[in-house]
Amino acid sequence: MGQTAGEATRDWTALRLALELHRGPWRVRLVRTQPLPAGIGLLLTVAAGEAEADAAAALGRPAADIREAATFFIAQILLAPGTDSYRVLGAGPGATTGELRHNMALLMRWLHPDVAREGEPAVLAARIAAAWNTLKTPERRAAYDRECQGAAALPAGDADLAALWARAEARRSQRPGAAGRVVRKRRLPRLLAFWLLGRSRD
Question: Tens digit of pLDDT for each residue in 100-124?
């Protein structure tokens, strides 16, 4: 039986990749560095508990497996530490405000107690809401884009320092008990402190 017109327009690329990653998680680090695949909106729709039967029919896998793979993709690719606000919402800088809003709504629906099965919904919801808050108006989005461009334009040494700080913050936020509370920056990472000390002597 051939595809209907509606099925033919659906892009299952993201869900196929999610299934591959779920079977072979060793590829996660590589995929985190690559642009998002087509069909993210459909992946979010399935994760939110919709279009599961269509996905199962198109991909030849049980709906539960596909939903689990979609959840794995969201957690490991969209919500990975250090992910920018666009990627948290499953989009790129070229996305429209409507697309960002739609993806945010699907992610929030995915976290609803009737859909979510595990994890820390409150923490994840706060992160998704923060990403949307950053991008929801043209003014905020423009300011965020300028900030990102400025970070990309840092001299190599300063960019390395910024990356070091980001990694240290990510590690700190992953410590047991850090979820759901503000983590205070009480001490600079040792390497950063040595770097600043060296600069003060120049």
Answer: 999 999 999 998 765 555 556 778 8
Regarding predicted confidence, which is higher, 75 or 193?
75
User: How is residue 19 written in tokens?
Assistant: 């299934």
Residue listed under structure tokens 């049980």: 62
Q: Contact, 25 vs 68, CB < 8 A?
A: no
* Domains in the chain: ranges and CATH: 5-153 (1.10.287.110)
Q: What is the pLDDT of residues 37-61, one digit of tens each?
A: 999 999 999 999 999 999 999 999 9
User: 193-196 contacts: CB < 8 A, separation 24 or more?
Assistant: 195/161
